[in-house]
Every structure is written in structure tokens, then in C-alpha cells.
Design brief:
2 domains; Dna Topoisomerase Vi A Subunit, Chain: A, domain 2; Helicase, Ruva Protein, domain 3; 7 helices; 199 residues; alpha/beta; two-stranded antiparallel ribbon
């Protein structure tokens, strides 16, 4: 027995396809959209269509942009000799929020994950190698997540970059600020010791 109109069920199904959205949340979102005034619902739909139509990857760094080249690559004040490699566009936002990095980025759009059938050919490694091969890059900072896939991806790319005579570094990982040492696992403490600095 169908409890809702087909169009409402279809809207719920579409929301449930979003990552992290379960059936009940999808239903709440669908009811919320139905409660919007017509003009707000149309603005919501237009924003989705417009973003899908306008946003594409930057031909230089592979980050998302609606311009020909993204604002970061187009900024002459940034250090053009350092490239920070991240897995996803949202990682660029996290790095920029710190206000500590003033170089350029390269977005892989994933990490190597054999269990999920993602190989090096499925991510933007080739584009990174082409950028570095052009010259002018002195350091590549690997900023993939410190999990199995992130580490494997970082190691794979560093091996490919070694013959290009470019310095390859890895973000230091360790005990987060505000946490307690007793709750840190062995790998975190090991990373913290490796990345220790003089004070």
C-alpha cells in the first residue's frame, strides 16, 4: 500500500541517495521542501541545476570552480613552487581555513582503494605528474588522510615523483590539541613522536 503520492516518494528517494542521508532524514527533507513557498522551492531547485551546469574542475589543480581557472591557481601572490596534494575538494577548504598554507593545490578526487575498486587510473595522478614535469615545483606536500588508503596513495605518488627531483613531504600527524594522551592510540602517538619539533 502506498502511503504518499508518487511524486513525494520520488523526492524522498532522491534525498536518500545523498551520502549520509537515511530513509527517515530523506523523508523529513522531502516534507520540508514541500512546506517551502513556491518561490523558495524553485530557488532551491534552480541552485542545484545551476551548480551542476556551472561547476567544473579547474584544468590546473582539478579543484572545483565556476571560472576558467580557480581563484587559487589564478592568484599570483601564492607560492607557485609548492603543491599540496589532497584527496577531495573539501580538503582544500580545510587547509585554507588554517591560513597557514600559501601554495597551490592538486585535488585527486579520491584515493587508491582496491577494496572499493579505485585504482591509480581512477584518480587525478597523471595530471599532477604533468604539472610537476613542467618544472618550477620544488615541493609536493602529501595531505591525504592518515588512513590505509591515504597512506598507500601518498606512498604511490611519492615513488612516482622521486625521479623528478622534487621534495616530497607528508603532513605531520599526532595528538590533537585539546585531547588527552591516555586516549591516543599507538599509531597516533608514534606519528606524534615522528613529527616532534624543537621548542
Amino acid at each position: 500500500m502506498q502511503y504518499f503520492p508518487a511524486s513525494l516518494q520520488d523526492l524522498t528517494d532522491q534525498f536518500s541517495k545523498l551520502p549520509g542521508i537515511g530513509g527517515k532524514t530523506a523523508q523529513r527533507l522531502a516534507f520540508y521542501v514541500l512546506s517551502l513557498p513556491e518561490n523558495e522551492a524553485q530557488a532551491f531547485a534552480d541552485a542545484i541545476v545551476e551548480a551542476k551546469r556551472m561547476v567544473h574542475t579547474c584544468p590546473v589543480c582539478q579543484n572545483l570552480t565556476d571560472k576558467e581557472i580557480c581563484p587559487i591557481c589564478d592568484d599570483d601572490t601564492r607560492d607557485q613552487s609548492i603543491i599540496c596534494v589532497v584527496a577531495e575538494p573539501k580538503d582544500v577548504i580545510a587547509m585554507e581555513r588554517s591560513r597557514e598554507f600559501n601554495g597551490l593545490y592538486h585535488v585527486l578526487h579520491g584515493v587508491i582503494s582496491p577494496l572499493n575498486h579505485v585504482t591509480q587510473d581512477d584518480i587525478r595522478v597523471k595530471e599532477l605528474l604533468q604539472r610537476v614535469a613542467k618544472g618550477g615545483v620544488r615541493e609536493v606536500v602529501m595531505a591525504t588522510n592518515p588512513d590505509t588508503e591515504g597512506e598507500a596513495t601518498a606512498m604511490y605518488i611519492s615513488r612516482l615523483l622521486r625521479p623528478m627531483e622534487v621534495k616530497v613531504t607528508r603532513l605531520a600527524y599526532g595528538v590533537p590539541v585539546g585531547s588527552q594522551l591516555e586516549y591516543a592510540d599507538e599509531v597516533t602517538i608514534s606519528r606524534a613522536l615522528e613529527g616532534r619539533q624543537e621548542i
